[in-house]
Write a structure and sequence with these properties.
- With 675 residues, the protein is of the alpha+beta class.
- It has 27 helices and 9 strands.
- The strands form 3 sheets. Strands 3-4-5-9-6 form a 5-stranded mixed sheet. A two-stranded antiparallel sheet has the order 1-2.
- The longest helix has 32 residues.
Length: 675
């Protein structure tokens, strides 16, 4: 039987043949691709002459088929998972880790890399070639190439264990999310909820062959309850379920796992000569050191905390005017904040939703990209996809030449993890004068259309879509000669700039007037609603900032403590790390770390601060757009260069070239109203 993963991909853009792929194709395909990739490495080692081209460039191009197959597998593992894929991941992940270690710890290969690094005439290289050489050499050193054989074996063991246990962490969170349901038959509990949330819950119940309504921990369902349900006990039950995921002392509990991940990471860092995992990670970030990260978070804390305390006091006073006579809890804040926002700005999500049907918001994102960068998105129906919900597009440049393939996957379903993210199935790179264009995807979890309503987005979901679309543009516009430094392969505290800056177009009338139309009447969003969006843009922003700071400090507590190996109680560590940022009493039975996928199974360990760091960049950059015009072509061209450069140029230099100076925190503080 022919394995489609190992055959030629004959779609219109050599896209993945999803409809032909079965779960049992993955493991043999991965094994075969590893064999082929190792042959490519052996060919590099066997070259008698050692040069930049036949060593560094050849290494960047090696393992291409393995990269393609792995991307398909792990993207499906996140967006279209099942028990069989999760079991396969436990086999495949260690294989890939071992393969990576076989390369990075290969002394003969490193000797060749080091020979080029030590002797290459840098004046003969382009800036991209210099960056590739530097990153290739450092990747070997940072992964143990200079270790003795005993320590190399230790490193392999740590990496193998980490690859398995991180998957286990993520699987626990996913299973916890999927196994919860709140089944309601008493209609009185639905009081306060918007019609679309009730209709979605009814559809979920029908899907599960139950009477009444079913609410889940998928974010649209959960958020609707927390923001709108009048029944406080209903909100409390949902909040506890959401915030106690993998923290119940059962087989899905992650308490021991997060401790183990943190300790393994710390041991790995020390083996490589770094005081902590944070020191190791931040060496390759704009922030550079844990001390600078902590200083940055503390700077924001000093500005935000007093204002956040005042915001909470004002929220409690407002709640009391509504008859509330208790201590404000975490499951009360979204509910009363939404009502307070309505009273202050005469605006609420339910009034906005009719103007933000998903199809129109997609048009708005595509239209913004066309106005800024001249690119067009054409829906295609001949590109294979992994689920019927997925939409597929060809992206054309300003000359109508092919630029990228774009997948969009918007709705929650069983087997799809929560949240929103951008990913790629194929990266951009150049070889033999041919520019291989990327295959980019964004994945979200918005309400599905019902029998009577299209998918209507909250304003927060609108900004989420624009955010992930910004990441997508970073990949789509990539123009790098080398795969390992193309697209979003940049410093993690820089990677959020292209995404976060796109959110700004959601607040501007000139942009909103292009897509915010009532789904029934086609009426443009009224000016008073736009004014309300603008006026409320920093509503309770200090509180939101404190939340992000608390996550950043928790991340650093797990990854920046030299003595983490001595920690036996992760719950105590979390309480201590987050104590100074708490604005409300902690609810017993809840925990952040056990479900903190960003830092324990994603790529943000010792890097969660980067969301706020990137906000400094995005606020400062958008100030430049506003000075010249939000669709100004000169500014857009300059920003496109920043996007297309990927990791070929140091981000500080890239930003300075775009802005004419370094970024200033002032624009962020001004925008947030906490200056």
């Amino acid at each position: 039987m022919i394995n489609p993963l190992l055959s030629s991909w004959n779609g219109p853009f050599s896209n993945a043949p999803f409809s032909e792929i079965k779960n049992n194709h993955f493991l043999p395909a991965i094994n075969e691709a590893i064999v082929q990739a190792k042959k490519e490495i052996e060919a590099i080692k066997e070259k008698k002459e050692t040069s930049f081209e036949n060593t560094i460039v050849a290494l960047d191009r090696s393992g291409h088929q393995l990269d393609l197959i792995s991307s398909v597998f792990f993207n499906l593992h996140s967006a279209e998972s099942n028990d069989e894929l999760q079991d396969l991941a436990q086999e495949i992940s260690p294989l890939l880790t071992q393969y990576g270690n076989d390369i990075i710890l290969d002394q003969d290969l490193f000797t060749k890399v080091k020979l080029v690094f030590d002797n290459e005439d840098l004046s003969s290289l382009t800036e991209a070639e210099k960056m590739l050489l530097k990153k290739t050499y450092k990747s070997f050193v940072r992964n143990g190439a200079l270790l003795n054989e005993t320590d190399k074996i230790k490193l392999r063991e740590i990496d193998q264990e980490l690859s398995k246990i991180k998957l286990e962490f993520g699987n626990h969170v996913l299973e916890e999310t999927q196994r919860f349901e709140k089944h309601i038959v008493d209609k009185a509990l639905l009081k306060g909820l918007p019609e679309n949330a009730i209709e979605a819950a009814k559809m979920e119940a029908e899907h599960r062959e139950k009477e009444g309504w079913v609410f889940t921990l998928d974010f649209p369902s959960y958020q609707a309850v927390l923001k709108y349900a009048d029944d406080r006990n209903f909100r409390k039950e949902m909040h506890l379920a959401f915030n106690s995921k993998a923290f119940k002392g059962d087989k899905l509990d992650n308490k021991a796992i997060v401790l183990k991940i943190a300790k393994l990471r710390n041991q790995r860092a020390k083996l490589l000569g770094y005081p902590t995992h944070a020191h190791f990670v931040l060496e390759e970030r704009m922030a550079k050191t844990p001390a600078k990260v902590t200083s940055f978070l503390n700077q924001l804390y000093e500005k935000a905390y007093p204002i956040a305390k005042k915001e909470m006091e004002e929220l409690l006073a407002f709640a009391q005017l509504q008859g509330f006579r208790d201590e404000l809890q975490s499951y009360d804040t979204a509910y009363y904040a939404e009502k307070l926002k309505q009273s202050l700005f005469n605006i609420d999500d339910e009034a906005l939703k009719p103007y933000f049907s998903l199809d129109k918001v997609i048009e708005g994102a595509f239209g913004s990209a066309q106005l800024l960068y001249g690119i067009k998105f054409i829906e295609r129906f001949d590109i294979d996809k992994y689920h019927s919900d997925v939409k597929t597009f060809e992206v054309l440049d300003e000359n109508n030449d092919h630029l990228a393939v774009f997948y969009a996957d918007f709705f929650p379903r069983k087997g799809k993890r929560a949240g929103a993210w951008m990913t790629s199935f194929q990266d951009q790179y150049e070889i033999n004068g041919i520019d291989h264009r990327p295959h980019i995807s964004i994945v979200c979890n918005f309400n599905k259309p019902t029998k009577d309503l299209p998918s209507l987005l909250t304003f927060n979901e609108v900004t989420t879509l624009f955010h992930e679309f910004g990441h997508a543009l970073h990949g789509i516009l990539s123009k790098s000669p080398f795969k390992s430094i193309s697209g979003t392969s940049v410093y993690w505290d820089f990677v959020e700039l292209p995404s976060q800056i796109m959110e700004n177009w959601c607040f501007e009338k000139e942009s909103l007037d292009r897509f915010a139309r009532h789904y029934k009447t086609g009426e443009l969003i009224p000016d008073e609603l736009i004014a309300g969006i603008k006026a409320s843009s920093n509503f309770m922003e200090a509180t939101a900032t404190m939340r992000q700071i608390s996550f950043g400090l928790l991340d650093m507590a797990w990854h920046g403590d030299e003595n983490i190996d001595d920690i036996t109680d992760g719950v105590l560590l979390e309480d201590k790390a987050m104590k100074s940022t708490r604005l409300l009493t902690k609810i017993e039975g809840t925990n952040t770390s056990c479900q903190f996928s960003h830092i324990f199974s994603g790529g943000y360990s010792a890097g969660y601060y980067s969301y706020k760091w990137s906000e400094v960049l995005d606020a400062d950059a958008f100030e430049y757009f506003k000075e010249k015009g939000i669709f100004d072509q000169d500014v857009a061209r300059a920003f496109r260069k920043l996007l297309s450069s990927g990791g070929t140029i140091d981000p500080e230099i890239l930003y300075r070239e775009f802005r004419g100076r370094d970024a200033s925190v002032d624009a962020l503080l001004k925008r947030a109203g906490i200056s």
